[in-house]
Amino acid sequence: MQYLLADDSTTGVTDVMYDLVIRDPLGPVTNAICSLSSLHDTRLRIAHGQLHPEDPHAHDIAQKLYHDTVIQLSKKAGKFTAVEAIASLHLLSFWLFCGGGGDWASALGMAGDWLMSTEVMKDGADPVEVLEKWPPVQRFAAQAILWFDILGSCSLQQSPRFIKLYTKMSDRNQRLNMASSVGQPSILFGQRKLAGTPSELMNQVMGCDDDIMFALAKIADLAAWKEQQVAAQTLSVLELVERARGIEQELKSTKVILSPIATSGPARPSAASIPTPAQPTQPGAAGFSKAAPPVWDPYNVGSVVPQTGEEQGLNPGWNVDPSRTRSTSINSPSPPINSIGPIGPTGRATSASSSSVTGAPGPLSIITTAEPVTLRQLSSNVFREAAFLFLHSVISGPEPNVKEIKDSVDELINSICAIPSTDLDRSLVFPITIGGCLAATPEHRSFFAERLAAQGSAVGNGSQAKLLMETVWKRRDTGEKNVCWRDTMKTLQFDLLLV
Description:
17 helices
């Protein structure tokens, strides 16, 4: 579910999972996958009215398989291989299926313990060369661990566990970029494997260039450092700005090549056609008078309403200037940019004659009209703009009316609008959520809320993320100052993994 942009030709993720199941049909990976499958099936059946939501035995199979996996992993404590790490990552996915909360941090910790014991972490080793030489099982495990570590640290406002590794890999990329003067984007998380080029591994699994992910890791580390310094009353604003300026320059050096998606459809709406924000759709969230749902709540699911063909359609093509460089800077703000025009309620194009999209949850289709590389490039651009927004919020605080933050929200919306609202949004929960929490206008709030609502609530963390955004808005609208989405998450007792 969270590997929607995985490059199977490079990662071999499908073959990896298949081989692990065939090799050990009663092993931890098999049990973890079966647990996920059972949970997914049960929640969808409840959403469709085929099971009663209060049936006390509805999740018995999923929970038994989950606990069987935990027991198997506990017997291997201290002797983990990449196989056990992958099983642990599936347990993390279990909690994502349940809404993004729960004991996902323990599952990630177990997987991270394996990575800590490998040669990637040895002093003097080139971690990129090591990772690229690993077989698919180990490489995929490492890629997924690093991805979840970075976004988990952003979610919980703590320094990433592998921040020294990210800094080392980032420095390597910068040296290679300067030496070659190529300036190509990196891939730990892509597809290019030429000797002497920057790492390109992240794109292979998650659709975000390495240097952008490394920047996000550094921003999370900066946010945690700032919080510690504020608590100790020792914050040096000069040091904060200097560190932030360095990260900003690294982000500016990333070049995301945007190729247009071949689409068809009506023209984009005028500003006057942007709908007013929809009312909160999360059960119990209207007016925010009810308590937030518990982290583990497998019965809190919404109905699934099939979408029309028009709602599943793609955006019309529009021009995105690939040579555009950000001018929003820590030192010199720029005017708001809306280079692709006004936005629709979910990023879908609408016309005056078409009805507005309600955002009712329903089965969504993954984009099939664009090449996967293009989709990864578009996704990477979304994370790039989210990183700029995150950085400016760390510098200036969670203040939506700060010019740099407003400009960054505009940029983020533009990048999201380049991707039609589909299943791919499940991989963009962090950018959508941070954008929504820092949105200043009703129109922007509506945009982000509708993108999350379109995911449905049967499976995944979209509903919980939407409730988090709405709670931030409620607190801010009632006059509270300095309303931080991470602090609000703590107030709601959400340990959300925004992935």
